[in-house]
């Protein structure tokens, strides 16, 4: 874990609250922002609430969850430590378990969830979280038992029904999984994730027309659900509808590239260079001609002192999009990589594309300043 980002949450200014401010309102605002995916805004709202009431369980749990989503795991644990005894509220135990799982401390995470369940045996929050934790660890029979207990408590829990179906599918009990997916879909007909799971199980049973219909409904519910487009492409090809399958696969690749590129942009903005590089590479795996991903990788590899990789990517960006600023980027990377002769050729192309542009003229002068005295141009 890198330390520079850990202190950031504490330094961000909190939303203003008077000493007698409405903590409940601030916490509600944080929870709304968290639900919308605005983790930075949620963190600020929760920190503001904690300034007024440092013991608020909802604020502590919400703030830690926002920090966890932002990848600041040590900061999340620090916030939770302010609660003193986590056992005073099951919600704190559940939140701490999520942080511990991200830190790959599985047994401690499980212990926290079991303590929360012991405190509230008729509540599904911790029990469902335990089932998901077990599912992620491949303990599918134990996960199934946890989800079944959830359904005994609340037979209309779509999350429990969906996850039980997933656990049964992973155990090879596909007919049972299909039954559970159908029950979940009956409870929430437009749930794209449920319909995707149903389509996947039906495909494995070679019930291809039914799989196609389920996956088409999943995409109707969420047109940008990349995995559903991928699965539908495979089903269509197997049904002999190759052109439709190829179209679905192109859509999948476009969505997948966009998703990874967005994650890379977020990581880059936070200064997490390694994760940014990984996500930009994944975007290129899905869409090799994504120009901006090549350009970003060039600069990140330069920052990581991998000149060969940096040049490979900025050259590719310039080939895919032959414009002045792309040529200038290559010139800059060449200059910083100790290749002034190549830098001169690329800045000349930039000036040819955009004659007289001040930035390229300045870059040209900087490159020329590296020429040894007496060496002819």
Outline:
Helices cover 75% and strands 0% of the residues. It has 21 helices and no strands. The relative contact order is 0.04.
Question: What are the key terms here?
Answer:
single chain, 377 residues, mainly alpha, flat, disordered N terminus
Please give a structural write-up.
- The protein is mainly alpha-helical.
- The protein is built from 21 helices and no strands.
- It has helices at 8-11, 23-36, 39-52, 57-69, 73-81, 90-102, 106-119, 124-136, 140-153, 158-170, 174-187, 192-204, 208-221, 226-238, 242-269, 273-286, 291-303, 307-320, 324-336, 340-353, 358-368.
- α6 (90-102) runs parallel beside α8 (124-136), α12 runs antiparallel to α13 (208-221) and α17 (291-303) packs antiparallel against α18.
- It starts with 7 loop residues before the first helix and ends in a 9-residue tail after the last helix.
Strand content: under 5%
What is the string of SSEs from the N terminus onward? HHHHHHHHHHHHHHHHHHHHH
Sum up the overall morphology in one term.
flat
The overall pLDDT, averaged over residues, is 89
Given the helix and strand composition, which structural class is it?
mainly alpha
Instruction: Bin the helical content.
Output: over 70%
Q: In angstroms, what separates the terminal alpha carbons? A: 49 Å
Which residues sit in consecutive blocks of at least 5 with pLDDT less than 50?
1-20
**What's the count of strands?**
0
Radius of gyration: 26 Å
Report on the biggest sheet.
none
């Amino acid at each position: 874990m890198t330390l520079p980002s850990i202190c950031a949450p504490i330094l961000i200014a909190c939303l203003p609250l008077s000493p007698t401010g409405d903590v409940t309102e601030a916490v509600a605002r944080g929870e709304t922002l968290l639900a919308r995916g605005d983790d930075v805004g949620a963190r600020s709202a929760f920190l503001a609430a904690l300034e007024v009431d440092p013991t608020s369980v909802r604020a502590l749990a919400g703030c830690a969850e926002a920090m966890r989503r932002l990848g600041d795991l040590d900061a999340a644990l620090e916030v939770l430590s302010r609660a003193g005894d986590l056992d005073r509220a099951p919600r704190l135990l559940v939140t701490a378990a999520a942080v511990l799982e991200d830190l790959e401390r599985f047994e401690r995470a499980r212990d926290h969830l079991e303590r929360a369940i012991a405190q509230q045996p008729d509540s599904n929050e911790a029990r469902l979280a335990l089932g998901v934790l077990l599912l992620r660890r491949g303990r599918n029979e134990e996960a199934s038992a946890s989800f079944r207990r959830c359904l005994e408590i609340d037979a209309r829990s779509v999350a429990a029904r969906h996850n039980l179906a997933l656990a049964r599918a992973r155990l090879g009990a596909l007919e049972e999984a299909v039954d559970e997916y159908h029950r979940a879909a009956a409870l929430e007909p437009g749930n794209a994730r449920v319909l995707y799971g149903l389509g996947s199980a039906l495909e494995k049973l070679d019930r291809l027309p039914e799989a196609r219909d389920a996956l088409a409904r999943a995409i109707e519910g969420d047109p940008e659900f990349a995995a559903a487009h991928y699965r539908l492409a495979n089903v269509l090809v197997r049904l002999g509808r190759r052109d439709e399958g190829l179209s679905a696969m192109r859509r999948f690749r476009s969505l997948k590239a966009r998703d990874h590129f967005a994650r890379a942009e977020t990581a880059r903005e936070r200064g997490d260079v390694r994760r940014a590089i990984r996500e930009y590479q994944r975007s290129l795996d899905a869409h090799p001609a994504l120009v901006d991903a090549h350009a970003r990788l060039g600069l990140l590899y330069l920052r990581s002192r991998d000149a060969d990789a940096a040049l490979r990517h900025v050259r590719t960006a310039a080939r895919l999009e032959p414009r002045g600023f792309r040529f200038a980027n290559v010139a800059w990377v060449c200059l910083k990589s100790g290749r002034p002769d190549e830098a001169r050729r690329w800045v000349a192309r930039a000036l040819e594309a955009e004659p007289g542009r001040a930035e390229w003229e300045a870059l040209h002068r900087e490159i020329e300043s590296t020429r040894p005295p007496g060496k002819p141009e």
